[in-house]
Specification:
- The chain has ten helices and ten strands.
- By secondary structure, the chain is of the alpha/beta class.
- The chain has an eight-stranded parallel sheet. A two-stranded antiparallel sheet has the order 8-9.
- The longest helix has 21 residues.
- The protein is globular and about 45 Å long.
- 43% of the residues are buried.
- The structure holds zinc ion and manganese (II) ion (MN) (2 copies).
- One manganese (II) ion binds next to helix 6.
Length: 280
């Protein structure tokens, strides 16, 4: 059986996320541990953390994945933005520890024109600093991007370079199917998907793959567009997702949907389609 879930809201208190995940029938889920907009946030109290972990244990759902907020840019050439980004990452790793969440997903950021090499140095420095300041064993998952201008992490080579320079077991990878497709990685056919995963295995190693963000794509293959679509209704399409969801590697990896909610479909609808395609 596949382990699949969605991104759920923490509105009304972080423990409410568990209720929402249970209502939607999630096997796993993802949250922002605080508002993803803005830099400011309140520390978690011991009571809040306890009510989350207690509820989660009772629910039998897991693992849970936390996602970094939107503003931090861990590859930023701007000193102030960079410093704030590193302290946000440190705080988020700490919060995951408090909530007993084993994985934190992060984007690789944008070098803003300073170049891929400089951006990589900044990013690696950011992670080393944050890891040295948090003593827990929370694992950081690097999410691939669609390859938009100045963005880091559009290719497996980029991600491999970072993992190689960090040399730690505390980093893994989250592969987003929409971003992969936008970056030009074929996924729709057994042959194409096989080639893509072989390349991942060669450059990074499949043992690093801890999460799949399962999203269809509004953009074409190689379009560099990061626009998510309902499962099967985008350019990857229903046949593409049937191929993806029958792949043994993907099937054995937790999956989180970050699909839209609109008049065509909601989270329940996308979860149903994903499970049907996995078992058809
Ligand atoms: Zn993400
Ligand atoms: Mn994603
Ligand atoms: Mn995206």
């Amino acid at each position: 059986m596949v382990r699949v879930g969605v991104h759920v809201s923490i509105a009304g208190g972080i423990a409410k996320a568990v209720d929402r995940a249970a209502e939607k029938g999630c096997d796993v889920f993802q949250i922002f541990s605080r508002s993803p907009r803005g830099w400011r946030f309140n520390d978690l109290s011991a009571e809040e953390a306890m009510s989350f972990t207690t509820k989660l244990k009772k629910s039998g759902i897991g693992p849970v994945f936390d996602h970094m907020p939107y503003l931090p840019n861990l590859a930023s050439p701007d000193e102030d933005v960079y410093k704030q980004s590193v302290s946000t990452l440190t705080a988020e790793l700490f919060r995951c520890g408090q909530l007993q969440i084993p994985f934190l997903v992060t984007h690789l950021g944008s070098h803003r024109g300073s170049g891929q090499e400089e951006g990589l140095k900044r990013f690696v420095g950011a992670i080393s600093t944050a890891f040295s300041e948090t003593e827990n064993s929370v694992e950081l998952l690097l999410e691939n991007t669609a390859g938009t201008k100045n963005s880091m992490g559009g290719s497996f080579e980029d991600i491999a370079a970072i993992i190689d320079s960090l040399d730690t077991e505390r980093v893994g990878v989250c592969l987003d199917t929409c971003h992969l497709f936008g970056a030009g990685y074929e996924l729709r056919t057994m042959e194409g998907l096989g080639t893509t995963l072989d390349e991942f295995e060669t450059l990074i190693g499949l043992d690093r793959l801890k999460l799949v963000h399962l999203n269809d794509s509004k953009g074409e293959l190689g379009s560099a567009l990061d626009r998510h679509e309902h499962i099967g209704l985008g350019r990857i399409g229903e046949d593409g997702f049937r191929t993806i969801l029958r792949n043994e590697t993907i099937k054995s990896t937790p999956m989180v949907l970050e699909t839209p909610i609109d008049s065509r479909r909601d989270d329940l609808g996308n979860l149903k389609v994903a499970r049907e395609l996995a078992s058809s």
